[in-house]
Amino acid sequence: MERDARFLVDLHRDHHPVVRALGQHYLVDTSVLNAGIELAGDLSQKHVLEIGCGPGSLTHHLLRAGARVSAVEIDIGSLKHMQSHFDEEIASEQLNLIEGDALTVEWPTDIDVVVANIPYQISSPLLERMQREIRTIPAVLLVQEEFAERMAMALGPLDRGPLGLSLWLDYDIEIGRRVPPSCFSPQPRVTSCLVRLEPIDRLATLESEIDRRLFRQITSQCFSDRRRKVRNLLKKSPRRLSRIPGWHRNRWQEAIRSLQEHPLMDERPDMLEPEEWLDICTLISMFEA
Predict the structure, then answer these.
(1) Is residue 243 within 8 Å of residue 237, measured between CB atoms?
(2) Of 167, 274, 273, 284, which is closest to residue 233 (Cα–Cα)?
(3) Torsion, Cα of 185, 186, 190, 195 (10° steps)
(4) Stretch 151-166: mean pLDDT
(5) Taking the CA atoms of the chain, what radius of gyration do you get in angstroms?
(6) Tally of structural domains, the chain
(7) What is the pLDDT of residue 86?
(8) What are phi and psi of 288, to 5 degrees?
(9) 8 A C-beta contact, residue 130 and residue 114
(10) What is the DSSP letter of 134?
């Protein structure tokens, strides 16, 4: 029988029960799989990192597009299924299976693009790892629609927050096709969305030398209460401030005291544009202890 998404998923589910703790919802809609490949661009001869290959429905489309695939999978049942049904591609080294947790296992160093239907419960930590290790590499991900909107800050003030602001430092984000639950087996309870992350070094573009960790700590602290003004939210130093070289509570308090009359400090967090957050962080960074 010719291999396709529905065949691979049905065969896998016949022999291996779904592990809901791993967020196993497998894509069976060929049009969505094709849309993801199209959003990724020309994959011929590219080395693709896939996170959570499951039964291989996306893997099959990546290979068919001419990519060389390194697929990370934590589930032993899925790995056995892949070894059985992709034996030729494994033998030819067109497909490399990596057993382990995508958040901790070593990733290949020569990947060109990430394409993945990622388990929803690891979306945030996976993006954090991507920003730490491979932020110059584009990615196409399938995530929850609400999460995609927060990634892209798509709905203005409503979706502004630490996630979108952190990603803004490293990516231009394009929201692609909406994917209803009926496109999966088993069906999730939420609508999903394809998202493309195109790398951009925002700090270099804007000639900023702020510490990324300081930017994230400042925005995370401020969005803990959207109703308060920034001046009040920043009076207390971030909990992990001491992990940033050169920073301590006294330096922080003096820096914030020097900015109390700045007009941006009188705004509420979700009313500030990303560039204005960069301005605040730059002003704080410029203060010498």
Answers:
(1) no
(2) 284
(3) -40
(4) 92
(5) 21
(6) 2
(7) 96
(8) -95, 140
(9) yes
(10) -
Q: How many CB atoms lie within 10 A of CB 51?
A: 24
Give CA–CA dist 83/79, Å, rounded: 6
The answer on 110 and 131 residing in a single domain is yes
Q: Is the domain of 46 the same as that of 148?
A: yes
Residues 102 and 19 in one domain: yes
Chosen domain end from 200, 234, 258: 200
Helix residue spans in the chain (DSSP H)? 5-15, 30-40, 57-64, 76-85, 87-91, 123-133, 145-152, 162-168, 202-205, 212-222, 230-233, 249-258, 274-285
- Asked whether the beta carbons of 259 and 284 are under 8 A apart, the reply is yes
Mean pLDDT of the chain: 93
Angle between helices 212-222 and 274-285 in degrees, nearest 10? 120
Residue 2 is predicted with a pLDDT of 63
Say how far residue 168 (Cα) sits from the centre of its chain. 12
Paired with 50 in beta bridges are 71
pTM, to two decimals: 0.92
110 and 173 housed in the same domain: yes
Q: What is the pLDDT of residue 223?
A: 95
Residues 86, 87, 90, 91: what is their CA dihedral angle, to the nearest 10 degrees?
Answer: -150
d(CA 21, CA 93): 31
pLDDT digits (tens, 9 = 90+) for 234-256: 999 999 999 999 999 999 999 99
